[in-house]
Amino acid sequence: MNLNNAKKSVLPIMNLVRMQGVPILDQLHLEERLLRCDLKNWCIVNVGTPQPTIVMGISGKPSELINIKSVIHNQVPVIRRFTGGGTVIVDKETIFVTLICNREAVPLLQLYPQPIMSWTGTLYQDALRDFGKFSLRENDYVFDNLKFGGNAQSITKNKWIHHTSFLWDYDERNMEYLKHPQRTPKYRSERSHIEFLCRMKDIIPSKSVFIEKTLNSLQKHFVLQPIKSDDISNAPYAPSSRLLTRQELEHDLLSTGT
Predict the structure, then answer these.
(1) Between the CA atoms of 168, 172, 177 and 183, what dihedral angle is there, to the nearest 10 degrees?
(2) CB-CB neighbours of 41 under 10 Å
(3) Enclosing H/E stretch for 252
(4) How much is the pTM?
(5) What range(s) does the BPL/LPL catalytic domain occupy (predicted)?
(6) What are phi and psi of 190, to 5 degrees?
(7) Cβ pair 161, 83 in contact under 8 A
(8) How many other CB atoms sit within 10 Å of the CB of residue 256?
(9) For residue 101, which of 105, 144, 218, 256 is within the disulfide window of CB 3.0 to 4.6 Å?
């Protein structure tokens, strides 16, 4: 009996969906549907979203997190997603990786935010061990002391989701739409967005190398089964991730008196 095949056979199956340039709101709707209406394990990889878009956590308040006047003036879309976490601006150079797992998918994993964060940290540490000095700093993925990956999570009765936006590259001008958050990680030390971030393209040879390394790391825990996004069933549900309207942003701005 082949021991490698025996080991592989006991690993749980994870469906793998690879996408290119799917709008981030469509991706969030897909993720939420798979989290709430599907029993299987999923990995979603999406390379880029067509236009710069701000994505806030479920409890984010626009006036505290973004420069609303410039956002409205330049018609930058603002999304409130269904998970917690901070605020990011994403674009065609962002790589999105999402893990959606059953309670039993990772043996002995306690389904609380920090244990899940720690487990994913070891997953990416394995994937990126040949590049830079990777670490999990509070809830961020960093090289040395510079952030390149922002995370958000949600835990339901039967499943959990962990999704990351990876900064392959970014336009410094877009970072001006984001305010300095009132609550920041200690390691940030009051640094501006530009001082606090790094570009993965300066550290890793290519996007395809990063994705390949990530999937290789995942294969130590799951049997990956490629699935086309068109083949995913469209179970009916009401998504909670949505675009904020101009009226909502203006109302939030007026409520601050600025």
Answers:
(1) 70
(2) 24
(3) helix 246-255
(4) 0.93
(5) 38-226
(6) 65, 15
(7) yes
(8) 11
(9) 105
Q: Which residue has the tokens 């964060």?
A: 117
Return left, alpha or beta for 48; rule: phi > 0 is left, psi -120 to 50 is alpha, else beta. Answer: left
Q: Which domains, and CATH codes, for the chain?
A: 3-255 (3.30.930.10)
Which helix (H) or strand (E) element contains residue 119? Answer: helix 113-127
Tokens at residue 175, please? Answer: 């970072």
* Angle subtended by helix axes 113-127 and 207-218, to nearest 10: 120
The structure tokens listed for 257 are 């008196």
